[in-house]
Amino acid sequence: MSDTDSPASSQQSGAPKPGVNKRAAIGCLSVLLGVPLIFGIGWWFSQNQAERAQEQAAQEAFAPALEELTSQEVSPYDVDKTVRVLHGLDLAMESQEDLETHLAYLARQDYRGVSPDVLAARAELLGVLQELYGSQTELEEQQAMWTFSSKLLLSTLSIVQVGGEASMTSAGANFSVDREQAQAVLAKLEEEQAAERALQGDIRDLKTELFNALVDYSEVYYTHLEEWDRLCTLRDRAYLAANAGDWASAELAAKAAMEMAPHETEAHLLYALAIVEGSGGLERADEVEAMLLNYIDAHPERSAPAFVILGQLHHDQGRSDQARLDFQQAATYYPRQAEALTDMLDPYKMRSYLRATPEGGFVLGRYKDTMLGSGSFSPNLRQAHILFEQNDPAWKKAVLDHFYRRRSQGQWDYLMSDLQFCTDLFGERFREIYPNDSYLDLVVTSPLMGDGIKLAVANRSERTLHNASLVMCLRFPDMHPDDYEAVPAGDTQQAVMSKDSTDFGTLEGEFTVGNRVYSAQDAYEHRAILVSNEGVMWVDTQPFKLAEAAEFREQRAEKLAQEEESEWTEQVRTRAVEDLQTKSSMTIEPAMGDDDLHFRLPEALSIGRPSFQLKYGNEYLRPEQNELQNGMIDLVFAAVDNLVDGEHPPLELLVDTNFGRVKLAWVETPAGWVFGGVELE
Predict the structure, then answer these.
(1) What does 344-360 look like in DSSP terms, one character per residue?
(2) Which domains does the chain have, with CATH numbers?
(3) Is the pLDDT assigned to residue 500 strictly greater than 60?
(4) Fewer CB under 10 Å: which end of the chain, C or N?
């Protein structure tokens, strides 16, 4: 038997060899340990790659904004531009839903003229945000980071200690950030973030750096806000003086503002205006002209107001052709420059307290006039007044051109003030442009559903108005009596048809006045201004017209006690009385029971915005029909009495107009009713 065939050999061959189990166990263990290790290494490598990729993405995303903030040349800054940018950046952060959108916004801004410390503080803040953003690989975490940081910034900016008085008449307020309150805000936001289980580690590591950057930025913010407040105090003083016609004081206040902020623009315009309107305009003409030309060269995108002042200067010098060109340029530039002049990020929007007082309203009104080309800064109205003084009928077209331009700018603020300015400038003759405005009625009703108001204009005249825009003037509770909200109503209508009602749609939406939000139905007074090819006029409801007529009688009596009537008003009244004497008629329209009365009066009376009452015995009746027809005023009083049989008291038609009350009498005789003449009360 060979060794190979021995039992021993057979037994050995069937048993495990020494070391095999050990090697197998090690191999299995290696496999068991190696698989997760390989996956772990792979996950680590993959995660590391994701983080590096996110860091790279963060650098690329932040680079354009950081470059814009850090690449600006150091130069003298404009405090208005600085505050405008500060205000705009914060509004953008509040309204934009993600970081990418905000970064794109930052990269598009024009930072020329912005204070370097503002740019540096903002860049420092962005640097911290970039580090945070670069560590977030999940979209959910990135969004959480943006929500956290934007809330923290806006909350920190709102925590401010104010020393002094922040008002337009104060010497300026002192602002600082309350660090303790800011720390409390940070802790609260951290709790909210922890509840969402996002950003915990990163915020914990970077919170001190982020907090310090935010507080530093806030301190810079309020330093410039304080500076701007002091500047506003001086400019407000200049505006108030200008409104009072005290041009010497306006000049001094504007000059002080210029010395404080040599690169601002408002005070420079005020200074030039004060000299032109004051006593030294002609003597200092060269100085003012050079100043305005420098302004136009430095601010071509905001040059329209300067051309208005320059035009007035040239007019005062007798350079009428040059003045006309200046006004034409200003009228051309205002629509083109509307966006720059009426910047939606205008820091004046931060001064809501101005609307609370008449004085504040003067300041805001003067500022708006400058930016909108309205009121005294309207090149069209300036030119119209020159033509008016020359007795050139073209003044009417120049007035209409002003309102067409306002419409093309899409800006209706202070439209009511525009109308008042026209009345002050042209007196009662302003109504010559469209004398039949009292035959247009504003109709306000509630819709079947919703919180808006339905609007229509009823035209009782014989003239169709073309290319008509309706602008509502709404007054809400808690508003100052002289304040209002100007809101365009619906689309411009091709025509407001004669003897018809034109629908201007439903006015909806919310209106923020001060700290309160209203709907259109909350307005306690509805008035409207209609801008058309034929004229610009008030359009009021019938109840308002009746109340206005009574109020006007009292105001007119008070005015006449203090000053004489204009020659034009006297001429209109005389002509109206003469026409009423010769062209008035009354007919009885028999009916079953009480008869109707039909009066026909000369249409020329309509320029006086007449309202009518019929006095019959002790009764005062309003007309059921009052419209213009065939060149006459048609009045119908329904069911007055049986006026044919029996004896009756006299009939007295009372006509309240802008030039006084007129009484027309009819008396009963054996031959019937006869005209008893006209009496002016």
Answers:
(1) TT-GGGG-GGGGGSHHH
(2) 34-228 (no CATH), 244-433 (no CATH), 442-540 (2.60.40), 568-680 (2.60.40)
(3) yes
(4) N
